[in-house]
Write a structure and sequence with these properties.
Elements (H helix, E strand, L loop, with lengths): L2 H8 L1 H17 L5 H13 L4 H18 L7 H13 L12 E6 L6 H14 L4 E6 L6 H12 L2 E3 L7 H15 L3 E6 L7 H17 L5 E8 L4 H13 L4 E5 L9 H9 L3 E5 L7 E3 L2 H9 L2 H15 L4 H26 L11 H6 L23 H17 L4 H7 L1
Parallel strand pairs: 1-4, 1-5, 2-3, 2-4, 5-6, 6-7
Antiparallel strand pairs: 7-8
Helix pairs in contact: 1-12, 2-3, 3-4, 4-5, 5-12, 6-7, 8-9, 10-11
Length: 416
């Protein structure tokens, strides 16, 4: 599966939520008026794009509609796609040009920092880079052990101290070791912290100062890991974290598990911080570079999701014995048909055995009632099983004919 397919799959929930409602909105309006824009603003806000960003998008859309003289709501989708693409701007990748390139990973607990570090280390290792990881999350229980498991999977070295040690000292030793070993990339884990805890944020500032001092003239990235499922709360986190550290990029995790992927647009517009990585799954290669064009294409294009789902169905999910199952189903249908036909032939009365399917019409056109013997014995009622409803219809047809025919009053009384 290519990278674009992964992005498209990760955005499926966001796309289904946002684009499905957008299509419904466009189909419900025959002209573009202020009511249409009010509905669109509400739609964008509820898709976690944010109030300010949604209003800005609609203002730009109004200008385009006026400039181009657009009157059909169905054309809005194309203009909306162009506006969002322009708003996301140019892609920016992680800078590791000057070694040792130091990547400082920050964020709240549960956002996915440790798994992001493990995936990032594996990526650079596979690219032939010499990677070192610093376990500076010394506060959380078993955080060091968890990170060590990831480094072993990736096949990279780790610098660690005892649990409860000073995180800044771990970072200092890791930077020193990276310089001595000629390491290409140093990835530093930090303690998960809430943005409203002053002492922890002060600790983060201390770590940031040490990195800047010890890694002078080296490439330095401070990546904030945000959980996409938290929606606009993630944007608020980014605002407060940016006050404690100079954030150079966002890592948006769990994008595949939420319909709130619209916060990417809000982050770019309100904070000016580029999203550099997105997590679209749990595998090592599910951490992808963010590309604005791929993001917008996957969000707006309808054929992308179909192609991706079709690929998964045929290549991964289709069972090997599907042809055998189809043959088995055909055999079962033939047997059922044969059994049903035999059952019908055995249970139908002799005088009605050759009656066609439209039995009621044939009964109405049957022989003259005078030819029916007055002393004829009524046939014994048979149990027709699951086909009983067919014979109820036949009986009902006979009864109706006899009730309507005045010549058969005697037969009716006799039968009673």
């Amino acid at each position: 599966m290519n990278i674009f397919s992964k992005i498209a799959a990760g955005l499926k929930k966001t796309k289904d939520s946002m684009m499905g409602r957008l299509e419904a909105l466009m189909n419900s309006f025959t002209k573009i008026d202020e009511e249409f824009f009010e509905e669109l603003e509400e739609l964008l806000i509820t898709c976690d794009i944010g109030v300010e960003t949604s209003l800005d998008i609609c203002d730009k859309l109004r200008a385009k509609v006026k400039e181009k003289g657009i009157k059909d709501p169905s054309e809005i989708k194309i203009e909306l796609k162009e506006i969002i693409t322009e708003m996301l701007g140019e892609d920016k990748e992680i800078d590791i040009s000057n070694k040792p390139a130091v990547i400082l990973v920050i964020g709240v607990n549960g956002a996915g920092k440790t798994t992001t570090i493990g995936k990032l280390a594996a990526r650079y290792k596979n690219d032939g880079k010499n990677v070192l990881v610093a376990a500076a999350d010394t506060f959380r229980a078993a955080a060091i052990d968890q990170l060590q498991v990831w480094t072993e999977r990736a096949g990279v070295d780790i610098v660690k101290h005892d649990e409860g040690s000073d995180p800044a000292s771990v970072v200092f030793d890791a930077v020193t070791a990276a310089k001595a070993r000629g390491t290409d990339v140093l990835i530093c884990d930090t303690a998960g912290r809430l943005h409203n805890k002053k002492n922890l944020m002060d600790e983060l500032k201390k770590i940031s100062r040490i990195v800047h001092q010890q890694a002078e003239n080296c490439s330095l990235e401070t990546l904030l890991v945000l959980d996409a499922t938290t929606g606009q709360n993630a944007v608020n986190q980014a605002k407060l974290f940016s006050e404690a550290a100079e954030i150079t990029g966002i890592v948006l995790t769990k994008l595949d598990g939420t319909a709130k992927g619209g916060i990417i647009i809000s982050i770019h517009r309100e904070l000016g911080i580029p999203v550099k990585l997105v997590g679209v799954g749990e595998k090592l290669d599910d951490l992808q570079d963010f590309h604005a064009k791929d993001f917008v294409d996957a969000l707006f294009e309808t054929e992308t999701d179909f192609d991706y789902n079709y690929e998964r169905l045929t290549d991964e999910e289709a069972p090997e014995n599907s042809q055998e199952e189809i043959i088995s189903e055909e055999i079962i249908e033939e047997n059922v048909s044969e059994i049903s036909e035999n059952n019908y032939n055995e249970t139908i009365p002799e005088e009605e055995e050759s009656a066609p399917e439209n039995s009621e019409e044939v009964i109405l056109e049957a022989e003259d009632p005078e030819d029916i013997s007055e002393n004829a014995e009524a046939p014994k009622k048979k149990d027709h099983g699951k086909f009983e409803f067919l014979f109820k219809e036949i009986t009902f047809g006979k009864k109706k004919r006899n009730d309507d025919d005045p010549d058969n009053e005697g037969n009716s009384e006799e039968s009673e």
